[in-house]
Each structure stands twice: as C-alpha cells, then as structure tokens.
Amino acid sequence: MISALSLLLLFQLVGEALVRALALPVPGPVIGMALLFVFLALRGGASDPLRETSQKLLQHLSLLFVPAGTGIMLHLNRIADEWLALLLSIVVSTFVTLAVTALVMRCCQRREPAEDGA
Question: Could you tell me the CA-to-CA distances from 53 to 7, 23, 58, 76 in Å, in that order?
C-alpha cells in the first residue's frame, strides 16, 4: 500500500512541478493524473497493490469534498453577489457537456460494426 500511495503522490508531484515550471493553466493533479494514465497504458494496466489502494481511496472520496464545502461557506457572500453568473455558467456548461457527450456517443456508434441480428 505504501508503494502504491508513493506512486500516486509521485505523479501528483511531477504534475505540480510541470505546472509551476511551464506556467500551465491546469491544476497539477490533473497533469499528474494524465501522466499516470499514460504510464499505466504503456505498462499494460495497474498492479494489484495500486488497484487495491485506489479502491480504498475511492471508498473515502466523499471526505475530499469537505474542503470544497468549507470554501463555499467561507465565500458565501461572494456567491450571493454573483449568483446569476454562477447559475448561468452551470446551466450552460451542463448543456454543452450533454451535447458533446451525445455527439461523441453518436460518432462512436457509427464506428462500431453492426451486429448480424441488429
């Protein structure tokens, strides 16, 4: 478990270092996660300890939302001042996400060969 956690934290550290070194407008953990994905794809998948550790972390994922909830409570008056812009951006981004997902699904369905019974 320690080696798997070390691997996860190493990729997060590399992502943070790249973001700071290259002044990228993306969070470091996102870059680290992409690098971990590439690493695992090249390696042929995750090892059993990494898979087990990841499952344990996912079981406690709700704890990671506590800081976000605290941040919302700390900036509640700012949210109250800009509620319309926030609501509009959430609604628009939701519809854009749905549209892009539908288009990608349609594109993927066209590429699949039709089954004989369909």
Answer: 11, 31, 9, 35
